Amino acid sequence: MTHEITPDKSPFRPAVPLYPVCRIAGTLVPLRILLVVNAFASSVTARNTVVVHQVLSRGNEVEIVETNRRGHATRFSQDAARRGVDVVIGYGGDGTLNEVATGVAGTSTALGVLPGGSTNVFARTLGMPNDPVLAVQQLADGINSMHIEPIGLGKVNGRYFCFHTGVGYDAAVVQEVEKHGSLKRWAGHPLFIYAGVRTWASKYDRKSPHFELTFANGDRVADGYFTVVLNSNPYTYLGNRPLDLWPAATLDGGLVAITFETMKVTAILKSLGGALRSRGVEPTDYLDVHADVSALTVSHHQPFPYQLDGDYLGETTRLDFEHVPNAVRLVRPNVA
Asked: What range defines the domain where residue 48 resides?
């Protein structure tokens, strides 16, 4: 009996070789996969889940678990990593994916992505379609071809994020959306537009700065109203159109901090116009951009709201950000 094992080039040092391709009497040993499902996500249905399970199970061992509260996916993922599961797949919205990524980060267990929410920013950033039935074959091909590579993640106050953290107005909009959570599955983007207008009109102070930013190199932005810290691009999608705040932001580079120092509607719309045309924003007197950031702090004596990968996390007086290279092993879908 012989075992053929591919060399492990991971930056992690697990107790056993990482992702061995073992052939015993010419047979490929199946991978162990955990599918973490958020059944409340907008694109997740019983039928879709059956199809997803069938595709992933071709040659692999797949276990399914369903989340029923915040933090559940992280606990499932942490347990799977401790048990030596090869791949944990987040099947739900971006919040579910974030929890799974947090659970497997820093371990030898790989992260898989399957779109199940209304926007699915990270999955679409990887080139996947927004339909899980179409996307699952791309993911399965990536798993079966061992297309797995380390990527960097952002980290704030001890929690990882995959594509962005929003501070200030952005987070206040997400808070307003979550107040109408029962409509999110059906209303989708119109609900976000409604929340954005309502928050702008009466839910957010547009006259006084909400926080300041201090960077590892000593730079400082004193009057922050609205900040987005990117780990990748785009920031989000408006229907099928990406909102490209900083096209150079990638999973291989440092963080990008984009801060509006005003809440004047003309200034913001002018900046976002470039983003909608896929050119990104341009630094101005009222818009600060710091790219390839390794660490920064956002703070104020009064609490300010923040959201992480689309999940509102409340208010705080301090956020400590860092970029973590090679934080997680990502299954790259085989996209055309």
From this structure: 23-146
pLDDT in tens, 247-296: 999 999 999 999 999 998 888 888 888 887 878 898 999 999 999 999 99
Extract the tokens encoding 55: 């595709």
**Helix ranges, 105-205 (H):** 121-125, 132-144, 169-178, 181-187, 189-198
Residues 68 and 110 placed together within one structural domain of the fold = yes
C-alpha to C-alpha distances, 259 to 208, 210, 320, nearest whole angstrom: 14, 11, 16
What secondary structure does DSSP assign to 110-127, as a single string?
A: EEEEEE-SSS-HHHHHTT
What's the chain's length in residues?
Answer: 336
| Helix, strand, coil share of the chain (percent; to 5) | 30, 35, 40
Q: What pLDDT, on the 0 to 100 scale, is given for residue 182?
A: 58
Give me the percent of the chain exceeding a pLDDT of 90: 71
Residue 268 in any domain: the answer is yes
In this structure, the number of other CB atoms found within 10 A of the CB of residue 10 comes to: 17
Only one residue has tokens 């104020």, namely 300
Cβ–Cβ < 8 Å for 257, 213: yes
Any idea what the CATH number is for the domain that residue 79 is in?
A: 3.40.50.10330
pLDDT of residue 273: 81
**What pLDDT was estimated at residue 239?**
81
